Amino acid sequence: xxxxxxxxxxxxxxxxxxxxxxxxxxxxxxxxxxxxxxxxxxxxxxxxxxxxxxxxxxxxxxxxxxxxxxxxxxxxxxxxxxxxxxxxxxxxxxxxxxxxxxxxxxxxxxxxxxxxxxxxxxxxxxxxxxxxxxxxxxxxxxxxxxxxxxxxxxxxxxxxxxxxxxxxxxxxxxxxxxxxxxxxxxxxxxxxxxxxxxxxxxxxxxxxxxxxxxxxxxxxxxxxxxxxxxxxxxxxxxxxxxxxxxxxxxxxxxxxxxxxxxxxxxxxxxxxxxxxxxxxxxxxxxxxxxxxxxxxxxxxxxxxxxxxxxxxxxxxxxxxx
Length: 321
Hints:
Elements: H1 4-16, H2 24-35, E1 40-43, H3 50-61, E2 65-69, H4 77-80, E3 81-86, E4 91-96, E5 103-107, H5 114-117, H6 119-126, E6 128-131, E7 134-137, E8 143-148, H7 161-164, E9 169-172, H8 178-188, H9 193-200, H10 207-218, H11 224-239, E10 243-245, H12 249-266, H13 273-284, E11 289-290, H14 292-296, H15 301-311
Parallel strand pairs: 1-8, 1-9, 2-5, 5-8
Antiparallel strand pairs: 3-4, 6-7, 10-11
Helix pairs in contact: 1-2, 1-10, 1-12, 2-12, 10-12, 11-12, 12-13, 13-15
């Protein structure tokens, strides 16, 4: 018998798989992010389907949707909203920005400047926005799906550590294999109408379907040894001589929540170290900041993350008593 989390991921695979070819593991990461109630960062070169994947994800979630195309001249008020003086009524009127939606696609986030990027910090962490000393509440299931180009691309601004730490997972999208690329050409070479029609026809998730998957993940058993394992990974990242900024407590919590979601998708009764290792790359790599010396030596956050995980002893006999 299928669990709610397994039914959820099957729904995503069935709908997204017919539009974004070769999405496989990407869909699983998106499902984990959704169950764990986090925001997701899609990274990859231009033209590999990041925006299309984000639009499909937003369509499947239902609710209100807004898209923001980031540019160097984008201002914080373009995201949050602004108070405008109305002479006819003699008072200010609040005009909410695109962040006041259930799902917000922020396209090419690292093409806008740090000042505008910072407008997302409060929204992503607290689901509120403060403008002119007045606090506005965002939807309870507010979700940011952001895309970014690799940092070595022209015209990009690196995301600060505080911004990266607010993304539960980073999902990397590479150029497709030749066989997958042939499927893309065959499906879409006649124009965009077929693609747009497919996106519009996606079947949104039922509200109780997502709630049930989240309840399932929250009810899973987690042993004390597994908590120690996750905190051990966080401690090892902070003590590593080639890492300037290790995993924060928020990052360790994200790792635990994603491991719960992965276990729920497996239909497991408890969370194991294998579930942690399955999600660790997507949760931890973008949170690690290598030292300048490490960068000069060609060491990446991906390599350092793998070394950290390998250095932490795996708890044995980690089953519920």
